Structures are given as structure tokens and as C-alpha cells.
Amino acid sequence: MTTLWDKKFENDSASLEKWLYGKQSLTGSTRQWFIDEVKVWPKGTALLDAGCGGGVTAYHLLEQQLLSNISYTGVDASQCMLNLAKKKIKHQNVNWVLSPLDALNYPNKFDKVLLRAVIEHNLDPEPILKSVANVLKTNGVLYIIFWNNPVFTGEPKIKKIEDGFYDNSHSMETVLRVLQASKVDLIHKEFIKEKSENSNERLVTKFRKKS
Fold first, then answer.
1. 203 close to 189: Cβ distance less than 8 angstroms
2. Which residues pair with residue 96 across a beta bridge?
3. How far apart are CA 48 and CA 104, in angstroms?
4. What are the phi and psi torsion angles at 75 (to 5°)?
């Protein structure tokens, strides 16, 4: 499967690296919020970074010497993204997997799952949400960090931008409904102002899977 990211960057990996590893991408407050969460996890925690892209989250974990404490799996449907991730992060506790996010085949395997700026780029978030809920262990935690804040009332905002990419704001009601049907309930939400932007506050959330 060739993704839109592959079509855009397969012959221009330098631009992809410059974009993902530029200063603005590496200084986000929501990224640091997640890193602070990882700091208090028990040693050996199994993390799935679903939609890991070029590995920026893993890069932060490596820089702050946290990869040695966890088992990290990064999954993405884009080969060019994973090629960049493999180039930037080399660690014995890291595993990279090429797979669509709606077809994950690791039932009840992970203690933690991260979805950061992922569902906004998909027309329908439901298959991905069901898939990540399935791989989460009982009492495991799903982190969803929204790039575009969800719509709390009214219709979702569906927008297609250049090169065919989606840049949506999905319905929070849909997110909650789908996850609750998989026994995954919201336990925390807060808005965090990004350092690198003038006014945007982004929603960060935590969900726990019930038995």
C-alpha cells in the first residue's frame, strides 16, 4: 500500500526530515506532556506509538534516556516515514512495523497506546479507534493528543487540503462512543498551549480499558 505520504516524499526524504525534525516540530508542549507521563511508567512498560510517522516521539524518548525503560513499537502505514524513523532512532528496545492502523493484529498486548495527531488525517476515525482499543491490555491507557481539537457540539469539520490529505476536526461524541463500546473510558482531559504557536491550545486525553 502506497500512502499519500509516500507519494509526496518518496523522492525527497531530505524535505521530510527537515519538516519533522525542524525546531518547531521538536519543541511542542504536548510532546513534553507525554514525555512527562512516560517518566513515571514502570520499567518494561509496552508502548505502541500508533501512527508514529518519522519517529519523532521515539526520538524524544531516546534524547531523554527513556527508551531503555520501556518496550517501544512504532507502527505506520508509510514506508518513507518508517525509513526516516529507522535512520534517526537506533535502539534495542525499539521495533518498527509497517501496517495500516485499522488492521493491527496484537490483541491485548500493550500497556500504553499513543495516538498523536493521527485521526485528524483520516476521513473516518472509527476503524482506527476500534483497532487501537483492541491491542490495549485490560487497565491499559490510551493517549489521544489532538492536532485539531475535536468538535464538542455540532457536526464534525471535514476538510481536504493539498495533495489529498485530510485535516479534520472529528466529533468528540464519536470518539467517546466508539471507545466506550470497546470498554475504553475517558479518565483525563486538558488543554495545553503549544509553545511554538501564537494561540492554539490542544486537547490531550487519557482513556483506560476496563475488564
1. yes
2. 74
3. 11
4. -120, 135
Within 10 Å of residue 61's Cβ, how many Cβ atoms?
A: 26
* E strand or H helix that includes residue 4: helix 4-9
C-alpha distances in angstroms, 45 versus 59, 71, 90, 135?
17, 6, 19, 14
Show the cell assigned to 196. 511554538
Q: Cell digits for 185?
A: 473510558
Question: Which CATH number applies to 4-209: 3.40.50.150, 3.40.640.10, 3.40.50.970, 3.30.460.30?
Answer: 3.40.50.150
pLDDT digits (tens, 9 = 90+) for 123-132: 999 999 999 9
Given CA atoms 45, 46, 47, 53 in this order, what sign does their dihedral have? positive
What's the grid cell of residue 142? 490510551
pTM listed for this prediction:
0.95
Reference 51, options 96, 90, 111, 14; nearest CA is 96
